[in-house]
Amino acid sequence: MAEEYERKFLDKISDKLIDGLAKIIDKIKPGWYFTNRSRVKEWKLMAYALNRSPLGIVGLIIVITFITLGIIGPIIAPFKYNFFPSLEAPKETFVKPPGTTVYLKSLGRTVTFILGTDHYGRDLLSLILYGARVSLVISIITMTLGVPLGILLGLIAGYYGGKIDELIMRITDIFLAFPALILAIAFAAVLPERIDALLSNNPWLQQIFLWLFALDKREVGNLGRLLSVILALVIVWWPMYARIVRGSTLSVRESLYIEAAKALGLSNFKIMFKHILPNILGPILVCITLDFGGVILMEAGLSFLGLGAVPPIADWGRIVYDGSQFFPRAWWLVLIPGSIVLFTVLGWNLLGDALRDILDPRTRRSIEFKIKKKKPVPSSEEGGSS
Amino acid sequence: MVNSMGSMRDFIIRRTVTFIPTIIGVSLIAFIIAYVIPADPARAWAGGEKATQAAIELIRKRYHLDEPLWSQYVFFVKGFITNTIIDPRTSNPIMYDIAKRLPVTIQLTLFAYMFILALGIPLGIIAALKKNTIIDSLIRFLALVGVSSPVFWLGYLLIYVFFVTYRVTHLAGVPPPPERTIIGIPVIDALLIGDFKTFTQHVQRFWLPGFVLGFMGSGVIARFVRNSFLEALNSDYIVFLKAKGVTRTMLWKHAFKNALVPVITILGLQFGGLLSGAPITETVFGLPGLGRYAIQAIIFLDFPAIVGITLVFALIYVTINFIIDILYGIIDPRVRY
Fold first, then answer.
1. Residue A109: which of A81, A73, A79 has the closest Cα?
2. Cβ contact (<8 Å) for A338 and B152?
3. How far apart are CA B39 and CA B303, in angstroms?
4. How many domains does chain A have?
């Protein structure tokens, strides 16, 4: 492709990535690239916009780090989350500051606890790495359950209107009438029993969740509490999406292209998901990004209050809760996991903030205008020659 | 004038009509939490696994748990309205336990609101006036940090700074309320009857938790005020005033007044955030408020209390938003239609 724009180093990388993606899609669906050239160009401009927002880049880096650590954290952790050095060296490992070095007989070598230890003598770094997995899995499951539910109900309410709309929105209002964390606390407190019953009837579900959370078989009994937090978060989260999607659907519903789709005799289902949804996806995407941070924050808050994860399961909020008994002496148990939560949530928020600008077509046009290569202005002497 | 008063009345009626089903729905959800989700509510209420059969049977009888669901619901709603549901753990009527702890939480939210207003509005205005400068980005970044910081992290960090290092705040207990109660919130009562010693004691105890709780909200308000103020500055009437040659401070005054109107709604919504943050803040700072009580109730599986607290939190939140909607309707006539 001819050089239209003055590209920076990052732009070249993002171009390569997007071209690669386009090629892959083209392989799966032959002819896709040809019909979607302008879309690919828009994607590239979006990437340029991101490249020009330093805070957005920082957010993206944090988010990618979080996801990577969430996936490989339990693998690269120096110790297992349920390895208790306190069993063999209780005094030497009980709530020790960062950098403590101890000789452990069972391992036959001296080990250094880079971020210190908790009251079981466990390595804080390993706990945080395992906690990243728990946090990642919880936020992903919450969003994949809550967002589609909200979108579906919002679309139905906005598209059909009338009594259905009234009913759905009244229910939404009721859920929004509770302060979010309070409702989540109440549900997380009462749900475990039911979930445990469900899990013990479906051992394959247990296996899946143990694998997802990177937990030992022994923690089967505590899965119910973890899952109850997820369900509580879903219950708190869907109403917001229902409301946002309904609002956007209402504004799109009367447009000409929807009328055209109706005139063509398309089914309501097709109109909702193929014609309305793609056109309101921008604001939803921003919300999803911001809410990943929100879910992580609320999950940490719930486990800080003693709901959800129980020791020895490593969970950021729970580490702080257990460590707070030794505060201020053991500041590392409180401030380090807390800061990790802060950074992760900040990362999602920065990314979401940048995304809001990027998805705004006006931003893209102004970027395009700014970085377009100026056509060489023919000077007066050689004016006639070219 | 007559017409406008009529429309105001219609607005209030319309808003009240949506208020009632919400309250009923809220009570239904609270009912589901306590009566429907637990597999055996009587056992759960009696304390779960370790409960004796006799205790379970007693609770089943006393709270009508052996009757059909609808009659349980009626008993539950009636019990809350007449305050006859007895907490199995404390043997007090639930509302009595809640009323004892409510003032602490209200006082905490009050302090948080003060910080939200005192930080959020000036920061928002500065950001708007210094649009697209370093200061603006800094405030924007700070607001994002505020939204992202876990309440417990900020709480412990500030305890480390202000209590462990400098000792400028108290952390133990709650100072006694002033001799006379007027509206029930100690710090305001102390101010009203002129008891300055009690007043300063309360301020010393509550300013830090209030700040921690309000920090998140102040960021949200700052961003909102900034955008709202900028929008007002770009509106037609300001352009007109500019053309008229009005001074800059005068311009800002006009824009400011109109920019603050939508902020009221956000302040109402913020209340939900403050109530949500209350359990964590109270846990960190050891305040015996309603949020802390909720957590204790969960630890002891005290279901009637959990439901009562959830219900009270929701009622406060719904009522505040109801009042704010009405206020908004009074201030901004466009909303009424």
1. A79
2. yes
3. 13
4. 1
Residue among A119, A297, A95 at smallest CA distance from B154: A297
Burial A138-168 (b: 16+ CB within 10 A, else e): bbbbbbebbbebbbbbbbbbbbeeeeebeeb
Out of A186, A331, A339, whose CB is closest to B33?
Answer: A186
* Cis preceding linkage at A328, omega within 30: yes
The closest alpha carbon to A118, from A335, A323, A324, A328, belongs to A323
Please report the residues numbered 58 through 77 in chain A whose beta carbons come closer than 8 angstroms to any beta carbon of chain B.
Answer: none
**Which residue has 């301020």 as its token pair?**
B203
Closest by Cα among B111, B272, B299 to B206: B111
Nearest to B38 among A183, A190, A350 (CB): A190
Averaged pLDDT, groups of 10, chain A, 386 residues long: 70 87 88 84 86 89 95 89 82 83 83 86 90 94 94 93 90 90 90 87 89 86 89 93 91 88 90 89 89 93 90 90 87 92 94 88 81 67 46
**A13 found inside a domain:** no
What is the residue extent of each domain of chain B? Answer: 1-89+300-337, 103-285
* CA-based nearest residue to B263, from B204, B220, B202: B220
Cβ within 8 Å, pair A317-B159: no
Chain B contact for A300 (CB, 8 A cutoff): yes
Which of A174, A331, A334 lies nearest to residue B29, judging by beta carbons?
A174
**Which residues in B lie closer than 8 A to residue A326 (C-beta atoms)?**
none
Which residues of chain A lie closer than 8 angstroms to B306, CB-CB? Answer: 186, 189-190
Q: Residue A385: is it exposed, middle or buried by C-beta count within 10 angstroms (0-12/13-18/19+)?
A: exposed
* ipTM of the complex as predicted: 0.87
Q: Which of residues 137-176 of A touch B (CB under 8 A)?
A: 170-171, 173-175
CA distance A304 to A44: 42
Which structural domain range is residue A200 located in? 52-375
| Residue contact B25–A174, C-beta within 8 A | yes
Q: Is residue A11 part of a domain?
A: no
Separation of alpha carbons A346 and B141, rounded Å: 10
Residue A287: CATH number of its domain:
1.10.3720.10
* CA torsion, ordered A219, A220, A224, A226, to nearest 10 deg: 40
Distance from CA of A345 to the nearest CA of B (A): 5
Superfamily designation of domain B103-285: MetI-like (1.10.3720.10)
DSSP B32: I
Q: Is the CB of residue B321 less than 8 Å from the CB of residue B266? A: no
Kindly report whether the global pTM for this prediction surpasses the value 0.95.
Answer: no
Structural domain contains residue A226: yes
List alpha helices for A7-161, DSSP H. 9-28, 32-35, 37-51, 54-76, 90-93, 124-160
Q: What is the amino acid identity at position A159?
A: Y
Amino acid at the residue B293? Y
Identify the closest residue of chain A to B274 by CA–CA distance.
A179
Q: B27-41, B143-157, B169-183, B313-327: lowest mean pLDDT where?
A: B169-183
Cα(A159)–Cα(B34) distance, integer angstroms: 35
Q: Look at residue B86 and give its three-state secondary structure.
A: strand
Crossing angle of the two packed helices B134-148 and B94-129, in degrees rounded to 10:
160
The DSSP letter of residue A376 is P
